[in-house]
Amino acid sequence: MIETLDDVNAVYREIEETARSIAGINWLRCGMELKATYKNRLIIRTRTKCVKWVRAAIASLRNAAITLRVTGSMRKAEALALSLRPLYIDKMNGDPRPF
In the chain, what are the domain boundaries? Predict the structure, then answer.
């Protein structure tokens, strides 16, 4: 679970490195940018053609993820991230956690 800023940076780096290794030379025109974090959710900006590699990286790391395409402002992306229901709820703490 993402609890501190170090955890966020570690998860983000791991996703980026895995996506880069999956895409290979095709990653040259791609890039990722961590826009924000909300609870245990990361908002990552990437080019449309690179989304498939980022999704594959997240799946290969066995993290639960929902990926969405948001057009418009950052406020819209933030609102959408906060409106999503958690994938898994820890019954003891009530905290959303990836499986």
Answer: 5-83
